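tool_log.txt
---
The assistant was asked to compare two proteins side by side. It first ran the structure predictor on the initial sequence, then on the second. Raw inputs and outputs are pasted verbatim so the downstream comparison step can read them without reformatting.
(1)
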Amino acid sequence: MLAVLHEVVAATGSHTDNTDKYLVLMLLKLGLDATAFYLCSRKLYRYIFTMCSLSIVLADVVLTCSLAGVWFVGADRSPVPLCFLLANAAATYGVLPLPVILLGLVDYYLHNSYLCNHSNSWKYLKNAALISLGWTLALVYSLTYVNAEAKQLNRPQLKVLVCEVDDSMPIALFVLTVFAAFICLMLPFLPRVPQWVKEADRLSEVREKQKSHSSDLFISTDSKEQMEKCLERTYSERPPLWISLALGFGTFWIPYLMISSVCLLFDLGVPAYITVNVLWLECTNSFLMGIVFWTKSNKEGPYSQLPENVCLWNVYWHLSNGTRDERLPIAVFKPSKVNRTSVRLV
């Protein structure tokens, strides 16, 4: 795709420099990535994906500051051409998705195995080294193979200076494939989906109440019995585990997948330095984590050793398998005529 850098109208001699537009675009992306990173990322030292999210935010800061420098000095006087920044940034971001997906999947699947049973400091250094190596190789590739020279297109009454930038094919394939697969999976169960989502919300609320009450030793027996009654409520038809986990993934990420798919289908031309962002990374993180959760929870129940995630995998496991297992302990105050302060843990 072509990025328009400069336009000159021959009839009037007026010209338009688009450097400020690219700067504003990167400022918006930086704000979105920083917000998504703050809300979604946890335990930076332990997992590839959270370390990669941090690296994307830092790369956004570097690119934004570089664009700000070009805008401040002026595109004509800047020692670093605007086309050089945009073309190399698009190529560098564009080659990252596939290695990150493979590294993240291996990292999650081998988590807590003897191969990855190391100290937190070692995991931090390992992840930082792998991510730094990935960015270095991507940057070397872009500087070696990318044509970062601006081209002038002559049109009637108009001269346009353009720069060729790359999009990210792996992200396009990922978004379209996951979105289409989710729609195809849910279509046969569409009449039941609202009921399952409502049940999952109820289970989530009950588990939150259990967590909040578990720290309070003075809970009435009636409150405990009311929770148990709510937990025992079941529906006659529960979804299979793989459908339940797909529903847990889709309830959070379907808006992002839908908007991204619309942009791709209408060929809006979004360069790789915009599409490779923390939102995409967290969506991919949830997708791969759901796969690992599914493969491990078939034998281990609601597998709880994975990092915190925006998708409530344990809740949707219970949606398929009921709620009799894996309950949180609740401290209950049991009134007594002899001893009014006796406490029983159940």
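(2)
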Amino acid sequence: MTTQRLFFALELPAPLQQQLVQWRADNFAAEAGTPVAAANLHLTLAFLGEVNRETQESLQQLAARITQPAFTLDLDDAGHWPRPGVVWLGCRRAPRGLLQLASLLRAQAARHGCAQSAQPFHPHVTLLRHATQRIVLPPRGFHWQMEATRFALCSSLFSRGRTRYKTVARWPLTSA
């Protein structure tokens, strides 16, 4: 039985992806870590892992039933997790809609056998990987607002030494 490595995410609009890539280049040295490709910048809502077709279809049907209001996300925080070597961009105060959506998707995933981290949900966009040295974070005062009007199911494909994310399906968030 074939499987795919899947996750639910908020996709970042292409202009925002490019702004974040430029900000990252302006604020982090080239040797700070491995930059995540612009097209791969996203905010994971629920990681599913290796999923078979039947489970994927069930989760897609459940996702299609979600009636969650759209929300505004303010990316105004950054950090470094030394152990996994990740430099991230996130929000100081996550909007309730984001937390509710992630909680719902993580619960559905767990009910379908997709193990979920025991760690609390920490919404973030990974900017750099393999950032194991001491990282100097830029001073606060930055922020990017994003209207979250939909969420997606994405697959992670590794080929020719590169990871590429592909959107499998998308669902709208409702208007307020």
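---
observation on (2): The longest strand covers residues 42-52. The CA atoms of residues 18 and 38 lie 6 Å apart.
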